[in-house]
Model the fold of this input.
Amino acid sequence: MSKWAANTSEIRDNGFGTSRNGKTIEGAVLHHGAGTNVLDYVANANSRDSHPTYHVSDGGRVTGIVHPDRRPFSTSHSVDSVAVTFEIDNESTGGDWPVSDKALSAVIDVIVDHARQSGYKVIGKNTPGKDQPDLFFVAWHQQYVQTACPGPYVLGKIDWIIREANARLNNHSQASNNVGQEGDDMYLIQIKGKANARRGGLYAVIKGEAKFIGGTAPAGVPVFTDEAQIKALQAVIPGLK
Ligand SMILES: [Zn+2]
Done:
């Protein structure tokens, strides 16, 4: 059983979507609304049968559309059966299809909430065609079907979204409110390398960059042993060896 993310302001679940057929939530798929207010469109019957799990307004207001226990209709792909999906309103239409900082911050809170509900310790970028069982994946529409969605602006923010989501997932003080800039948060992670490998150990991640500390990790520090998981972390945290 899944719950609506804690930062959901309103629920407008009109019964769209369908069963997940026993599948559980393993990640999130991002879409942009291609409009500045598509809430009414996605909450009601529409010609594209577009009904995400969440709609996020330009002001960062989150509305629940299809209960997370059910499969949303967003991506025209089976990924929807294992994902929560977002339609994010654009700040303005056309160009690089910008969305607001507040909207992205709200999206990150929802992602973190569902990663936690599903028991994940790491949030990572979806790699098409690759099974990434240890990551709560963040994907976007274009990875599955030919579409401009979610637009160049959101695509340019993916790495930042994932860094920020991991910082919040690990309960560290939220990074600065300036989207795209890392805050002053610091957290510890430990990588267990293969036997005799010249890597691994305890790292402090400061402003998004890993510094090797060595020694033994204090209790509560997440330890990563899986190669795929470590690779995914290395992709988003520079300095991790
Ligand atoms: Zn889309």
User: Anything to note?
Assistant: The domain at 8-169 is CATH 3.40.80.10 (Lysozyme-like).
